[in-house]
Every structure is written in structure tokens, then in C-alpha cells.
Amino acid sequence: MPGLLHPLHEGHAPIILHNAFQDAIDALEDWELGSDEPQIDVNEKRVPISAVFRRLWTCTDILPARTLAVVEDLLPLRSAEFRIGSSTYADAAHSLWQLSMQKRAATIEIRQ
User: Fold this and answer.
1) Whole-number Å distance between alpha carbons of 32 and 84
2) pTM for this structure?
3) How far is it, in rounded angstroms, from Cα 56 to Cα 11?
4) For residue 55, how many other CB atoms are within 10 A of its CB?
5) How far apart are CA 33 and CA 10, in angstroms?
6) How many CB atoms sit inside 10 A of residue 18's CB?
7) What is the pLDDT along the chain (112 residues), one digit of tens a residue?
8) pLDDT at residue number 71
9) Distance, CA of 107 to CA of 112 (rounded, Å)
């Protein structure tokens, strides 16, 4: 989705991607098994949340504490891996992408 999501600049994401990341986390929290992968609005386009997580795989920006708290709630078994002041968007993006893929697979299984 290179045309929809802004690129990183030397590992840093523009604020629009930080906001999209937060929106993607909120959508992931609300995703009910059996329904399609949530999409969010970015630049007036619909983007799957997994694409947002993938875009931030190499983002070296530090996660805000409020975002980190939500990530820890979504990933309780991995919460020890995250640290306030040092965990990056990339750290969270990898784990959240994996979670979104697990939910996608579970949805496919439910539908069969």
C-alpha cells in the first residue's frame, strides 16, 4: 500500500501514521471474530489495519505511554517485552500484525 500510507523518513513516521497506528489498535481491540479485518480511514482512503502495522515495522519512534498500555492489554503474554520510554512503534507493530493475522485466520476457520 505504498500509495496510501506515507513512507518513513530515516526510521521516523509522520504524525498521520502515528494517528493511524492508534486508530488501527482501537479497531483491533473492537474486532469481533467472524467479521472481516477492520479498515480505518487514512488520507480519506480505507486501509486494512494489518497494512498500518506493516508500514510501521521499521519505525524507531518511541511509543507514547498511553499507547503502550493498550498494546500491553492486547498482548498480555508479551507485555514484559515492552518498556516505557524505550519500546518503539516497530516493537509493537510486529506483535500487533501477528495478532491481526491470527484473528484473520480464526475468522476464516469460523466461516468454513
Assistant:
1) 29
2) 0.86
3) 9
4) 26
5) 36
6) 18
7) 445 677 777 777 888 999 999 999 999 999 998 899 999 999 889 999 999 999 999 999 999 999 999 999 998 867 667 788 789 999 999 999 999 999 999 988 888 7
8) 92
9) 9
